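Predicting holo structure, zinc ion bound.
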Amino acid sequence: MFDFARRGAAAVAAVLLGMVWIPGPGGGRGDGVGGGDGLGRLAAPAAEAQAARPFVMPFASPPGPDTWLMGQPYGNTTGAYRQRRTTYGAGQGIHFGVDLSAPCGTEVVASADGVVFASDAMSFGSAPHNLMVDHPDLGYATFYGHLLERPDWRPGDVVARGQVVALSGDPAGTCNGRPHLHYEIRDLRHVRKYNPVVLVEADWDSLALIGPFGRAFQRDLDDPRKWQHLDDQPESVIGGPLLNDFARPWPPDSR
Ligand SMILES: [Zn+2]
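Done. Tokens:
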């Protein structure tokens, strides 16, 4: 599908230069600019994409080595597989969010207009601090984890798409462990978790080329093409059975 040899280097360069970054409001792109027929036609696909993927990335800055990169995708990753009975057991064994590597203190923005549901509700996980924002109009909630400090919000506070709502941190709390934002999209009951790739407007293919520290997805050798792509990953329900307890896994189960 993707010709890495021909397009890979160009895509990486484009990401590094910020050329493929799709900013949120205030990020530089005018809404409905122009109005001529040519611009109108060009704008149409973007509008359709926005309707299909209603969220913006939770960082206002463009991706890059000095800002943020994708650390671990959502889904059936090898890392989550290895921790399917521990860290990720409650989420059916898959990585039920996307990790965005970023220095501590990077500003985190709301992915859409919303209402704060909870700040530092640790039953949602992702210590040391977290934030859950509901988006009733969209039927989803977004969750921001491993934050640097307790977000200064109360339940019911209204936040706007693109507004700074928190600062990213490090699960170790040291800022030199593996600082990253763990970002989830859930339903409004906060139990079902969705793949951000299909709901957040971003150039995920380019992000995947340079970002992930663990790009591979765990294989089920009885169905080796299952869940091997960024945009083909299962939903996860809290408390549901493991999805990836494969009889014939690859890489092999180390335990
Ligand atoms: Zn994570």
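The chain has one domain: 4-250.
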